[in-house]
UniProtKB/TrEMBL annotation:
<protein>
    <recommendedName>
        <fullName>AAA-ATPase-like domain-containing protein</fullName>
    </recommendedName>
</protein>
<dbReference type="Pfam" id="PF09820">
    <property type="entry name" value="AAA-ATPase_like"/>
</dbReference>
<dbReference type="InterPro" id="IPR018631">
    <property type="entry name" value="AAA-ATPase-like_dom"/>
</dbReference>
<feature type="domain" description="AAA-ATPase-like">
    <location>
        <begin position="10"/>
        <end position="162"/>
    </location>
</feature>
Length: 530
């Protein structure tokens, strides 16, 4: 052995309780949850069957070890379950004549599972309290038996505040602590992994991975990447989205029914930031309300939206935007943003699904609009007649989409126009997300949009109370003034073609579209209607 001395003098000489709360059994109420907790405790006691031969333990101690280590543990209920791990710590202390080390893994797994499976709020309350009660008893039952403990889990929100344990120091995801980089891989580690010969990744593929998977930032600008996403990319060279089909993302539609939450998500997808108060004091009632927000359409506007976004951050959907965060009367106020293109796409597609359901979007018309962007290429611009025909059908399809929404709601407002455009753009992204990226900035009445395809870009601008002709003229003037600066950008140098594209809605809500290619020095612009 390489470390003989360490193994001989330390291995097996210290008492350790390692308990993993991740159980295989699903449960729908607190009674069924007891089976989960029994399984967890049984798996922990099995690691210590050797204690039955200890000459330092009483017969009662050995009976407890036997009872939990073998098939008879289904007879334990209530306090017998809650106190089980605490009693194990006493037994280990007796045997080793030394204080016990504790490692608790997936401490929040039963509570998070209950959020998904247990529909009754009172039953959910019981499960969470049972979950945290076992841990609390182990850690606070009698400090003379315990040396120190490490507690690992995913969600601070889902299980915090039930039994406050002052002695436990919390190291949250993206928190301001020395262990933040252990929550994933650093940019340097990701880059070193991408460049390994066995993965055979091109420079462009590596750049694309960094753009898409770019890490999460904590208040001190420490950056971590999602380890799962990084490993998935190097194994498959594909940027398939891990978050798109989780239990929580499937239920975003309930969140979007709360107007304030929906508006915040819209801001985030457009590249903006939101201010959120993140409190350390989280009660069981808060967690139950959070669950209802994800799974219950009857939530009201007064719901604590801060908790929703705090939870979304620890689930990997949000990151700190700047190092600036201040103290408020209720907790810490933080500026949050979407961390990368991977997450932005998830939120954008979920918004699109919600919009399509609300507006009953005609999928044929939506597909027709998307086809225009999918078929744009440098070669397509050469054939003016073909391109103009494609632009005309885009105009007709978009106009019909807007008309249908206007007829359905009795009028068409700027928010409706923006959301139809949003659905159109992300219909494209959904169909070819490996080669197509959408960036949106602005407001509901004015959007700056950048569509990026391989070696090709479309710079779009949308305005209300304007015509596409006037918008395009302003874009051309602005672009001419900044051409020399933009050409110094390495990404733009690689771009063979650039199309300026304008969408206008005038005061009477009449649609117009215009576009021109940079390659012909802004000559022969297309305008529909002419």
């Amino acid at each position: 052995l390489k470390h003989k001395y360490i193994m001989r003098n330390h291995f097996g000489k210290y008492p350790l309780i390692r308990v993993d709360f991740k159980c295989t059994q699903k449960f729908r109420n607190s009674e069924e949850a007891v089976y989960c907790f029994r399984e967890v405790i049984h798996n922990t006691f099995v690691q210590h069957k050797y204690l039955r031969k200890s000459d330092r333990l009483t017969l009662k101690d050995k009976r407890l070890i036997k009872g939990w280590s073998y098939g008879s543990y289904d007879k334990f209920y209530g306090q017998d379950v809650t106190n089980s791990l605490y009693k194990l710590s006493i037994i280990l202390y007796k045997h080793f004549q030394s204080r016990v080390f504790v490692v608790v893994d997936n401490y929040d797994f039963p509570s998070v599972s209950a959020m998904l499976e247990v529909k009754d709020s009172k039953e959910l309350n019981r499960v969470v309290k049972f979950n945290m009660g076992i841990i609390s008893k182990l850690l606070t039952g009698d400090y003379k038996y315990l040396d120190r403990a490490v507690i690992l889990g995913l969600s601070y929100v889902a299980a915090a505040g039930v039994y406050p344990i002052e002695e436990v120091h919390s190291c949250k995801f993206l928190g301001d602590h020395p262990f933040v980089e252990y929550f994933g891989v650093t940019r340097l580690e990701s880059d070193n992994l991408f460049k390994k010969d066995e993965f055979n990744l091109t420079k462009r593929e590596i750049e694309k991975a960094h753009d898409t998977l770019n890490g999460y930032v904590n208040p001190r600008n420490k950056v971590v990447y999602n380890l799962y996403s990084v490993l998935q990319f190097v194994n498959s060279k594909g940027l398939r989205n891990f978050y798109i089909s989780t239990e929580f993302t499937k239920n975003f539609k309930w969140l979007f029914k709360i107007k304030t939450i929906r508006e915040h998500i819209e801001t985030l997808v457009k590249g903006g930031s939101i201010d959120i108060v993140m409190s350390d004091v989280i009660l069981v009632d808060d967690m139950i309300n959070l669950r209802n927000a994800f799974f219950n359409s009857r939530m009201q506007e007064h719901f604590n939206i801060n908790l929703v976004f705090y939870f979304l951050m620890e689930q990997g959907f949000l990151s700190y935007d700047t190092q600036c965060h201040s103290e408020s009367s209720n907790g810490e106020t933080a500026l949050l943003k979407v961390p990368n293109e991977e997450i932005k796409l998830v939120l954008a597609l979920k918004l699109k699904e919600y919009y399509d359901g609300i507006y009953r979007t005609d999928k044929t018309l939506l597909k027709s609009c998307a086809n225009f962007f999918d078929t744009i290429s440098p070669s397509a611009l050469v054939n003016r007649a073909h391109f103009k025909k494609a632009l005309y059908w885009f105009y007709k399809s978009l106009d019909q989409l807007l008309t249908c929404v206007g007829n359905r709601f009795g009028k068409l407002n700027e928010g409706d126009v923006h959301r139809i455009l949003f659905s159109t753009l992300y219909q494209v992204n959904f169909r070819s997300n490996d080669e197509f990226r959408v960036s949106i900035n602005g407001t509901s009445s004015h959007l700056d949009i950048l569509l990026v395809k391989e070696k090709f870009r479309i710079m779009m601008e949308f305005k209300l109370n304007s015509t596409s002709v006037s918008i395009l003229e302003l874009m051309m003037n602005k672009f001419s003034e900044t051409t020399s600066t933009m050409l110094q950008n390495q990404t733009l140098k690689k771009t063979q073609k650039l199309l300026l594209f304008a969408i206008g809605i005038d005061q009477d809500f009449h649609l117009s579209v215009s576009c021109v290619s940079i390659s012909n020095q802004f000559k022969d612009a297309f305008h529909i209607p002419e």
